[in-house]
């Protein structure tokens, strides 16, 4: 298959030479692909803004020895337009792209469920119907579940008992009083229910949650994800180390449509 078609979401871009970029894309059928977009940094480029982060594109690529070459790109959904206008959406969206990039560690290894979660998450973020932080946490929890790391939330991660009291990241999530390791955080009432609602896609419950539960949920999800990325995935796959999860500053990435 020297020439192939796929659809995907642009995760990130890097400059290459004088006028080109390497575009990292999570595709529907092929998995993560790195493709060269030749001449994309010229003002006359036929690619325009179609290969910016967050864009859902239909692609034609020519398979190369190391990098594939993107020969055509058509926009399916320009999610970035609605995401980069709002700082909370933008930071949530960047964390989603970076997490997808990390979880799809190996190139050209199909990751259909992760792709579908990412497209659904970006669409929800762009629509603005739910708080961006909740959309991000729902995506992170579901991505962890797809990767086989769903946290225990309704029963103890160690003994299966239902009287959960604390959240212990290394133990695998919620734990009961008897299994609780020293230092495990005790969540506010409703926080574990919020996490479970986000994991299941129960937006009525999630939207009705309180600020304290949301911030506690975000803290648990971020630390749980970080722990699994460091302990579970880095040891198995080749992963870049300079990954700025949730440290994205507004100036750290180019504005939508900007080249340079
Ligand atoms: Zn237990």
Automatic annotation (TrEMBL):
HAMAP family referenced in this protein's UniProt entry, alphabetically: RecO
GO biological process, one term: double-strand break repair
Pfam families named among the record's database cross-references: RecO_C (PF02565), RecO_N (PF11967)
Organism: Thermobispora bispora (strain ATCC 19993 / DSM 43833 / CBS 139.67 / JCM 10125 / KCTC 9307 / NBRC 14880 / R51)
Function description: Involved in DNA repair and RecF pathway recombination.
The protein, known as: DNA repair protein RecO
Keywords tagged on the record: DNA damage, DNA recombination, DNA repair
GO cellular component, one term: bacterial nucleoid
Gene3D superfamilies per UniProt: Nucleic acid-binding proteins, Recombination protein O, C-terminal domain, Recombination protein O, zinc-binding domain
Similarity comment: Belongs to the RecO family.
């Amino acid at each position: 298959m020297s020439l192939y078609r796929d659809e995907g979401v642009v995760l990130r871009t890097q400059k290459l030479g004088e006028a080109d970029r390497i575009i990292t894309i999570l595709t529907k059928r092929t998995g993560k692909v790195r493709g060269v977009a030749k001449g994309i940094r010229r003002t006359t480029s036929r690619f325009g803004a179609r290969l910016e982060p967050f864009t859902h594109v239909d692609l034609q690529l020519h398979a190369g020895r190391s990098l594939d070459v993107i020969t055509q790109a058509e926009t399916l959904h320009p999610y970035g337009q609605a995401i980069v206008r709002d700082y909370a959406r933008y930071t949530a969206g960047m964390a989603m792209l970076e997490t997808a990039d990390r979880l799809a560690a190996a190139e050209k290894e199909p990751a259909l469920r992760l792709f579908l979660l990412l497209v659904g998450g970006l669409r929800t973020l762009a629509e603005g119907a739910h708080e961006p932080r909740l959309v991000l946490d729902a995506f992170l929890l579901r991505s962890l579940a797809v990767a086989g790391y769903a946290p225990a939330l309704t029963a103890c991660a160690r003994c299966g008992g239902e009287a959960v009291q604390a959240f212990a990241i290394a133990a695998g999530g919620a734990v009961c009083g008897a299994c609780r390791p020293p230092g495990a955080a005790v969540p506010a009432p409703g926080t574990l229910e919020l996490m479970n609602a986000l994991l299941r896609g129960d937006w009525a419950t999630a939207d009705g949650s309180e600020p304290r539960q949301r911030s506690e949920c975000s803290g648990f999800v971020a630390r749980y994800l970080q722990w699994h990325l460091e302990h579970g995935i880095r040891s198995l796959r080749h992963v870049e180390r300079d990954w700025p999860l949730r440290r994205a500053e507004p100036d750290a990435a180019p504005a939508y449509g900007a080249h340079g």
